[in-house]
């Protein structure tokens, strides 16, 4: 590095102070060789200064960083991305677990709903629809009694009836039949002829079961009742009964 | 006056034109700028001392820049680039301070 002290310098005014020289150099402007060369060099300096300042402020830290720093930064970034990758895998595993468990819960809920509907059909708390038969018993002489209707119900159940309704009364496990003068009470509801049974089940099984010799139909016809059995593609059993919580019986499981 | 204008024009040009610096030169630019600053302060001091010579200024400016860049380049090759460039900046900073002190004495007489 050189020094600018030049012993062969030409001092035009030996008695002039530094300040006067400075002012003389700045004003008035003179186009001299010295001024021009200095201007060119200062132009280069200003250019470099501006470029450097701009690249430092724009390019961030990496632009001016040296090789070993860059290697270190790269290593750190690699480490970090590995760590984040691990973290990501862990979280994805967690998400899978949660999704699986919520899937399981969903299918369990679905099964429960399905079961509820099935049990509802049996318990008479939901309406049911399906193929079946319709039986109409016209009692002209008042000879039909509760036990005959009960026999009919039992025959139908033995033949695989799944949902039964008699004159808008749903027949379930606890249903009982009692005689009440000319008519019959089913679960306490007074029902009189003609008795219409809407039965959901396999018609091919139930109709022959009713019509066997000595069966329900023959017994009723012996009592002067007219019995009609018709197969239907679509029987609707929509009489409902409310679910009743048992007072004494508890699940033993 | 024209010299000051040159500096201003250079800064403006650098900000407006946004020239692309080749990557080879990039690490040496900051050191070169500091070295050039040192030369400029030296020149200013010489002018106030009344011994300014444009030839000497040109030579000192260019040699300052080249030597500073060379030292950093050598440091990079030896694996001590960071430390050596710090050293160069420290030395140049000291020189700039001493020159600034001389200029201050001239201008403010204190």
Summary?
The complex is a heterodimer of chains A (253) and B (110). With 253 residues, chain A is of the alpha+beta class. The radius of gyration of chain B is 16 Å and the shape is globular.
Could you walk me through the main structural features you see in this protein, from its secondary elements to its overall organization?
The complex is a heterodimer of chains A (253) and B (110). By secondary structure, chain A is an alpha+beta fold. Chain A folds into three domains: 18-58; 65-123; 126-237, 2-Layer Sandwich (Alpha-Beta Plaits). Helices cover 49% and strands 19% of the residues of chain A. Chain A contains seven helices and eight strands, in the order H-H-H-H-E-H-E-E-E-E-E-E-H-H-E. A five-stranded antiparallel sheet of chain A has the order 3-2-7-1-8, with helices on one face. In chain A, a hairpin with a 2-residue loop joins strand 5 and strand 6 (189-191). The longest helix of chain A has 57 residues, at 67-123. Residues 1-14 of chain A have low confidence and may be disordered. Chain B contains four helices and no strands. The two termini of chain B are 25 Å apart. Chain B has helices at 2-17, 29-49, 54-78, 81-108. The model of chain B has no long low-confidence stretch (mean pLDDT 85). With 110 residues, chain B is mainly alpha-helical. Chain B has one domain (22-108). At the A-B interface, helix 1, helix 2 and helix 4 of A face helix 1, helix 2, helix 3 and helix 4 of B. Chain B: Pfam families: DUF1290. Chain B: Keywords: Cell membrane, Membrane, Transmembrane, Transmembrane helix. Chain B: This is Small basic protein. Chain B: Its main location: membrane. Chain B: It is a multi-pass membrane protein. Chain A: The chain crosses the membrane at residues 34-53.
């Amino acid at each position: 590095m050189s020094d600018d002290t030049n012993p062969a310098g030409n001092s035009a005014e030996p008695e002039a102070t530094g300040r006067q020289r400075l002012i003389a150099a700045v004003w008035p402007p003179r186009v001299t060789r010295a001024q021009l060369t200095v201007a060119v060099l200062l132009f280069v300096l200003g250019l470099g200064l501006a470029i450097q300042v701009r690249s430092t402020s724009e390019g961030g830290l990496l632009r001016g960083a040296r090789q070993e720093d860059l290697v270190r930064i790269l290593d750190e970034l690699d480490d970090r991305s590995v760590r984040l990758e691990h973290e990501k895998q862990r979280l994805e595993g967690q998400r899978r677990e949660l999704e699986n468990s919520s899937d399981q819960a969903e299918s369990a809920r679905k099964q429960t709903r399905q079961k509820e509907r099935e049990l509802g059909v049996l318990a008479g708390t939901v309406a049911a629809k399906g193929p079946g038969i319709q039986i109409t018993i016209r009692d002209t002489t008042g000879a039909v009694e509760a036990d005959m209707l009960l026999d009919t119900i039992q025959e139908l159940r033995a033949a695989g009836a799944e949902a039964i309704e008699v004159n808008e009364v749903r027949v379930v496990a606890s249903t009982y039949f009692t005689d009440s003068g000319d008519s019959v009470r089913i679960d306490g509801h007074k029902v009189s002829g003609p008795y219409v049974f809407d039965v959901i089940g396999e018609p091919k099984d139930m109709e022959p079961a009713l019509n066997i010799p000595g069966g329900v139909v023959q017994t009723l016809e012996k009592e002067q009742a007219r019995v009609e059995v018709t197969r239907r593609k679509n029987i609707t059993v929509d009489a409902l009964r409310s679910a009743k919580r048992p007072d004494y019986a508890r699940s033993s499981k | 006056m024209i010299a000051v204008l040159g500096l201003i024009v250079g800064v403006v040009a650098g900000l407006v034109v946004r020239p692309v610096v080749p990557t080879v030169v990039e690490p040496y630019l900051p050191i070169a700028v500091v070295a050039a600053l040192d030369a400029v302060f030296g020149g200013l001091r010489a002018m106030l001392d009344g011994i300014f010579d444009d030839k000497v200024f040109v030579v000192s400016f260019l040699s300052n820049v080249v030597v500073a860049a060379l030292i950093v380049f050598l440091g990079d090759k030896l694996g001590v680039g960071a430390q050596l460039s710090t050293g160069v900046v420290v030395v140049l900073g000291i020189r700039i301070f001493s020159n600034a002190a001389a200029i201050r004495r001239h201008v403010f007489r204190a």
